């Protein structure tokens, strides 16, 4: 599913002439928030329920350079889930070329924001995530 669309801004370019790694992480983070909203846990829901998702593991593979003005899309697939975690794969694609610029595999844990401990995923959220995983 599409979880983020954006553009590489000139201030995101580093001394090597391409988008700095920090901004890949930023755009993948926007993709995570888009994904969480799609499964029923947007920022407002998290604040209201004192619950959230925290990244506990993330691996990024850089595949093609991005430069200022490149338009990108992040899509997100569910790779797996456990009682308390969701494992997803973000793919960042250069819209103009169709090339995959980077991928990020991430594991996030559902947490109680008051005591910072892991909790089982809510049943309604789990059902959505299972459906997404099973329809890949």
Automatic annotation (TrEMBL):
It holds the Pfam family 4HBT_2. CDD domains: 4HBT (cd00586). Gene3D superfamilies: Hotdog Thioesterase. One of its GO terms (molecular function) is fatty acyl-CoA hydrolase activity. PANTHER family: 4-HYDROXYBENZOYL-COA THIOESTERASE FAMILY MEMBER, BLR1345 PROTEIN. This is Thioesterase.
């Amino acid at each position: 599913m599409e979880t983020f669309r954006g553009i590489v801004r000139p201030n995101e370019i580093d001394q090597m002439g391409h988008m700095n790694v920090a901004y890949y992480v930023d755009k993948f983070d926007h993709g995570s928030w888009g994904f969480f909203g799609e499964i029923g846990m947007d920022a407002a829901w998290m604040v209201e329920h004192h619950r959230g998702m925290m990244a506990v593991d993330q691996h990024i593979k850089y595949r093609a350079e991005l430069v200022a003005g490149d338009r990108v899309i992040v899509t997100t697939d569910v790779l797996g889930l456990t009682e308390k975690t969701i494992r997803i794969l973000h793919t960042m694609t250069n819209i103009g070329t169709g090339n995959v610029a980077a991928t990020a595999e991430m594991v996030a844990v559902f947490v109680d924001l008051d005591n910072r401990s892991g909790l089982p995923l809510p049943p309604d959220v789990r059902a959505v995530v299972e459906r997404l995983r099973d329809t890949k």
